[in-house]
Structure formats: C-alpha cells, structure tokens
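Quick start: load a record and inspect it. Here is Polysaccharide deacetylase family protein:
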Amino acid sequence: MLSKFHYGILFGAMSVSMAVQAQDYLPVLQYHHVSVSSPKSTSVTPEQFTEHMDYLKNAGFQVVDLRSALDDLQAHKALPEKAVAISFDDAYRSIYQAGFPILKERNFPFTVFINTEPVERKSRSFLTWEQMKEMEASGGVFANHTIRHPYMLRKEEGESDDAWLSRMTKEVDTVEALLIKNLGHSPKMLAYPYGESNRTIRTMMEERGVMAFGQQSGVVSADSDFENLPRFPASGAYAKLSTLKTKLDAKPMPLLAEQAGGDFATDKPVSIRLTFKDGKYRLKDLVCYVAGQGKASLDWVSENEVIATASKPFGVGRGRINCTMPDNSAKHYYWYSNVWIRSAPDQGYVSEKS
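Running the structure step on this input writes:
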C-alpha cells in the first residue's frame, strides 16, 4: 500500500510526464488546390496530399480543430503533444473532390477559408454550400476569406480612405453573414487575401472578435498577434515531405519584442530588431534569410538583442525575412518570419501610416 509520500512522488512524476507531453504552440498548414491540373505554385497533387496526411498519422501528430486550438493557446491551455492544424484557402472544389476523402478517411478536422463571390454565383470550380454542409459533418469548418479576394490594402481609383475602409468592412461582414445564413454559425476566423493587412484592418478584426492569418511562416503561440497569425505553406515549392517535416517540428522563436518598422518596405533595405526572452538559447546559431537575397547581416546590440538587415531593397511586391535557430536538443528549430509590402505608386495602396 502506498503512503501519502509515495502518492506524492507518483503524482509529481505524472504531472511532469503530462507537462512534457503538453504543447504550448501550434503549426498550421496552409493548402489551396488538391489537383494535378491547377497551378503548381498553389497546388498539391492528391498523391502528395496523401503522403502528407499519412506522415501526420504515422508520426503520431494530433490534428486538432483550428479555432478550438487557438482559443486554448490564447487562454494558456496546453495542446496535445505534436498538435497540428490543417487549413485551405479559396474554397476550390478540388478540396471536396480530392482532399476531403483523404481527410475523412483519417478523421482529420480541417478549416477552409472561403471567398464567397464564386460560391454565390455557383462557379463549377468552387465549393457549394451543400458540399460544405457535407464536409462539416466530417470535421470541416468554414471561415472568412472575404467576398472577392481583394488586395485589402489597395484603394480603387478615386476612392477615399473612408470609402476604402467601408468597402473592406463589407468584404468581411458580408461573408460572416453568409456563413451564418447558410451554415448556421461562423468560427470568427479570417485569412487575409495575399496575406496583406495593416493596423487599421487588424483593428477591425479585433473589434469583431475575429482571429486572422497572414502569410508569414511560423507557429502560433500565446505570444502571437491573433489578428496576424502565421501559417506554413505546404503547396507548390513547399510540398516536399522533407521540408514539411522541418516545419512540423518548428517552435515559436522565444521573443520578448520585435520591431519591423511597419508593414511597408521603402527604397531602403529592411531591417528587424529582435529581443529574446531570458533563457539558454543557441543565439550564435541564429540565421536570418532575406527572400531572394540570401543571409541577412546580423548586428548583436546586446547579449539578447539583434538587428537583422537585408543587403538591398525589396522589389515591388511582398518580401520577407525568415529567421531560424536550433533548440538545445538540435531536434527542433525556433522559427520566425516577417513580411513587408513594397508598393508601386500605380497600385493605389493606402497610406503607410494607416
């Protein structure tokens, strides 16, 4: 018979074991098409998608409902060990035709961010509300990707700032209403088309209680900006299983603060200032890569603070810096990414101060 002392030891050991098994971060995979005939840059073939899903199952990953997991992280509740979430953008019918059977067979929950204009006009290339209801019965969740998939920070010709914001508000609110009308509920999540947002748009999300995703890579944690969350692309050039394995093993960069100078890049090279939390990290092994340029220069301004700078300005479009650092076990990488927009005058982007 165990004494109170031995019960205490046993309970303590169980608590430690549970703590080890708990996870306080979440990688989220982003897909678009599941098809051999759609653009390769945003597609996985059914064979590739099967390979990905089989790996998740065989390697012991726990595929979780995205919104529930985000709520738990925000509340500092532990997720299952090896938790991961699956998401799709754009409501393509190939998700239903080729992706859904694979997910259903494995009993994996998933989220699809839908742009409703092609759904409402009954485009044959996009999901129907009836298909969505069928998918909901087997773990599917449908969320907001705006009506027409616009560049949310671009104004139309002659449009005022107030008119632009009103149009973007309609893009968001209309889809929320359609989700409730056709499916009876909304998870209050949104994926920004092209990953683009600014402070004004993110404030709109916060006021509506909507959690939103950009297109910077990384894992979600309680420290994340829940109006600009990261995901890992898993299509096109990122569909290789070896690449996917590295991302699934990623951890959030242990940052106390970050300063990126805003959402827009200029005609000067971008830089980002990262301040690390106290702890024993392999800071000497931190590497930051600039899209299309190679390694960023690193200037350590203190023991736990670094400035990463690109070697030259970004061209017009979206550019990013990705930073990785091995953890002490060398089995995982801490991961961080930031995206900037370099706009051209004729694109009509809103003021960089918005």
